[in-house]
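Homework help board

Subject: predicted structure for assignment chain

Our instructor gave us this sequence and asked us to write out the predicted structure in token form, then describe one feature. I got the tokens but I'm not sure how to describe them. Can anyone check?
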Amino acid sequence: MTTVGRWMTKNPITIDKDATVIEAIHLMKEKNIRRLPVMDKGKVAGILTEKMVADFKPSKATSLDTWEVHYILSKTSVTEAMNPKPYRVKPDTALTDAAKLLHDRKLNGVLVMDDSDNLVGILTVTNALEALIEICKDPSVCQK
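My token output:
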């Protein structure tokens, strides 16, 4: 049985809870990532995803111009847009159990926490698909 720890993205890029939404947007674009664990003094305070940021931005139908939207997002803390209770798994969680959680809850990723509740990784749908591809290269595991 393969575990989350084998397939997760280790040492994920994070953002501090005091950062602004605009800083998070820039960091996500710069690092080409879609989710950021939000940290408070080394501990997870929540998670901010690309979708949460998109849902948080004012509608395109707003009368605000681009500069006004940028200004508002530069004054808004990530804590206002984040999910403060992200789903979590441990590195020794069976990959099948984590994949079922992703599927059943319609999640795109879960945080991976060690026994001391420290963030050690993120398991995404992409990670789970990479595992499936690799595992199914063995014909004795996945039949055609």
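Reply (TA_rk): Your tokens look well-formed. For the description, you could write something like this. The mean pLDDT is 89. That's the kind of observation they're looking for.
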